[in-house]
Amino acid sequence: MEKKKILLALQGGGAHGAFTWGVLDRLLEEENLEIAAASGTSAGAVNATVLAYGLTIGNRQTAREMLDLFWRKNAESGMFSPFQPTWLDRMVSPGNMDFNPFYQSWGILTSFLSPYQLNPFDFNPLKDTLNEMIDFEKVRNNQKIKLFLSATNVRTSQVKVFDTDEITVDSVLASACLPQVFKAVEIDGEHYWDGGYVGNPALYPLLWEHDCNDLMVVQINPTNYPKLPTTAHDIVDRATDIGFNASLMREIRFINGLNRLVDNGFDYDGELEKVYIHFINTGEGLNHLNGSSKLNVSWDYLTYLRDFGRKNADSWIKENYDKIGVESTFDVEKFFGSDSPEAQTFILPGRKKARPFDCFFQ
User: Fold this and answer.
1) Which one is catalytic: 25, 39, 42, 175?
2) For the purposes of burial, counting CB atoms within 10 Å of the CB of 354, is it exposed (0-12), middle (13-18) or buried (19 or more)?
3) Is 194 a catalytic residue?
4) What does pTM read for this prediction?
5) Catalytic residue status for 293
6) Where are the domains of the chain?
7) One of 25, 89, 170, 194 is an active-site residue; which one?
C-alpha cells in the first residue's frame, strides 16, 4: 500500500474508549499509515497518551502492547469497584448495569453530595495506573507524534489544550475529570474538569499545528438515537451525548464550510487548503448500551468493545485507504447538517498554506 499520513481526533466516553483502543490497534497494523498527531479528550486523551508513549519507547507493536496493558490494568482495578454488572444485567442487557443497586442510587447520592464529601482523599485508580505505566518526561520530549489533550477550565468555561511539552499525569487526569466523581484537577493555579464539555476533542490544534490534511475522527458518542428517551436515566444519557458531541459537530461543520469555499474557488490565492474528513464511529452498533455501560470495565465487555472497534476500523481501511489524501470519506451534511454560516463569511488571511482555524488566531 502507498504510504499515507493522518491526524487522529479521539473522543471521550468512559469505558467506550475501549472501542477506540480497537480502532487504534487495527490502524497500527498498517505499516504504511503514519499517525502524525493525536488530539484526545477524557478516554480519548488516555488512549492518545498511551499510544504516544508506546511509539516513543518502541514502535507500532509496542504501542499496541501498551494499549492492551493499559486496558487490562483498567479492568483489574475495576474488579474492586461497586460498578459491576449483575447476573441479571448479563442475562437481560449485556454491557449495561441497570440492575446494579449502587449505580441506581448513584444519581441520587451525587445530587446532594459532591466528590469533596464522597471522595475527600480524591482516590483515582487511573492516576496510579498512568504513573505506573508511563514516563511522562519521555512523552513530553518525544519526536514521533504531536499530542494535544483537552480539558475544561472551570473558571473561564474555555477549552484548555495541553500541548505535547505540557503533558503530565495531571493534564491527562484533568481531561478525564468527571466533576460528579472527582475533585477538579488543579494545574498552575487553574482548575479543570473533563474536556468533553467544550472540546470532545478539540480539532483546531491538529489543523493549525500540522501540515497533514487528513483528519480521522474516532467518534464514540452517538449522534443519532433510535427512539425518544422517556425514562430519567435515558434522558440524562441522551442529553450528555448531545452535549459531548456539540463542539465536535460545530468544528466539523466549520471545516466543511471552508472546504466548500475551496471547491468554489475561494482559496485565498492558494493559502487555504482542503481538509479531508474521515470518521470511524460506532454507527448503530452500540445503541443498545446506555450511560451505565460507560462505567463497566469488566474484561469481557472491554474486549467486546475492542473487537467492535477493530472490525469497524478494518472495514474503513478496506473501503477507504486509497482515498486518504484524495477526498473526504465522511458526508458531513448527511450526518451533521449544513455547514457553519460563519465559514462562508468570516475568513482572515493567515500564514502560508493556512489551515481553516487560523482565522481564530489572527
Assistant:
1) 42
2) buried
3) yes
4) 0.91
5) no
6) 4-360
7) 194
